[in-house]
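Researcher: Here's a chain I'd like modeled. Treat it as a single chain, no partners, no ligands.
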Amino acid sequence: MHPEIASFCADHQLPPSMAGALAALVSRLSSGSGSATLVMGDGRASEGLLALSGAGGLATFTDDAPAEASAQSAATGGLPARYTSAGLLGVGGMGEVLRVRDRELGRTCAFKSIKPELLGKANVLARFVEEAQIGAQLQHPNIPPVYDGGRLADGRPWFTMKEVRGRTLGELIADAHGGEWTESGLHRLCEVLVSVADAVGYAHGRGVVHRDLKPDNVQVGSFGEVYVLDWGLAKVVGRPDLALAEGDGSGKRARALEVVARAEATVGEAADLRARAADLRAEGAALLAGVPTWAPEEDKAAGWTQEDAAAALELSAGLLEAEREALLQASLTHAPELPEAHAALAALAEGRHAAAEAARDAAGAKRAEARLRAHAEALPDGHAVRRRVAAYLQGDGALTLETDPPGAEVHLSKYELRNRRLVAVPVGVVGRTPLRGVPLPMGSYLGQITHPERSPVRYPVSIGRG
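Model: Modeled as a single isolated chain. Structure tokens:
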């Protein structure tokens, strides 16, 4: 046996049977043979054809014959004999994931298998196998490794991988926005982002595009480890796009995500147009400053030219924003519950609601609020955008008030519209000064401040959202 193989097996505590199998595999591959058989420690054999795609790309594994089903044991509930179930971790559109204990290596890992009802769908089977191959061949510290794979007795493919525990990047970002920003917290989020970029850059170098990259698909462990998860929609450059084939919900999700990506690609361009328009309007205002209204047209022409150019840019930006909204709505025809689309549409509705309130457009605010609620409620429970929208719509603000001398009693009445008149409805005593962040619903109030040593004071108070 080659000394390097013996050293590798010793370092990884592999059994002698595995060491012999590795030596045989290396020998056959080095002899130029395209096919190889690797006999595992439990006596199972996996046969197939290995072909490198070149330029450092992924290897393709295709079965020349139906794979042998893994050894089964009734005691393990249909799992391969080396694994025992420790409970269900989750169920997705294509597969289900168990937490299992590896008897041979004494470790806990995640066991993913395809759903039984999808066994007859060739495209789904091929995509599941491709997901396993991508995870196995993308060997990077920020991508969860795939350990093992095979077929169950009923023919369903399976693979095991590292079980990743921790919190998602989306949850960490929501926490950061919900509390006080600190330099160390921001630095940590930037480190996570760099790790994600490293993983994605590595995958791109191997010809793999994730296509579902988002904060909720990034897991951060308690010891700082960072993993990019969920490669089920990944695209391997140069191979047929299995995820976009007809036949299952995941394909519809992939098409919907492509439409969302097209929509979001317009955001930066629209923002640039509006920024340029704002600059031109400022230049036009500067040119027209000091020019009297009765001055001849030629004195105003330069300023008008800048204003007209700004209006044209604003129109272009508005058309791009309308196109974005139409694309986001179109994505929901492929996947009606797509969180990415509902979150983006909720953000649009929130902006319109805020603008309508600022313009005192009650009807426009009601329309925007209805759309905002609809898209927010379509998001999963606990989604960061859903939580933020709920807090926004609740409209609670806070009152901070100081007096000199302190100790003044503050009584509030809230203005409400009754019979087309604003009436001050008593709320009650909210405390004595100084007041710090007393929560109050948004609205207009009349404060009555009294102190034994001072004359009473009536003070208007306006509480805005948040």
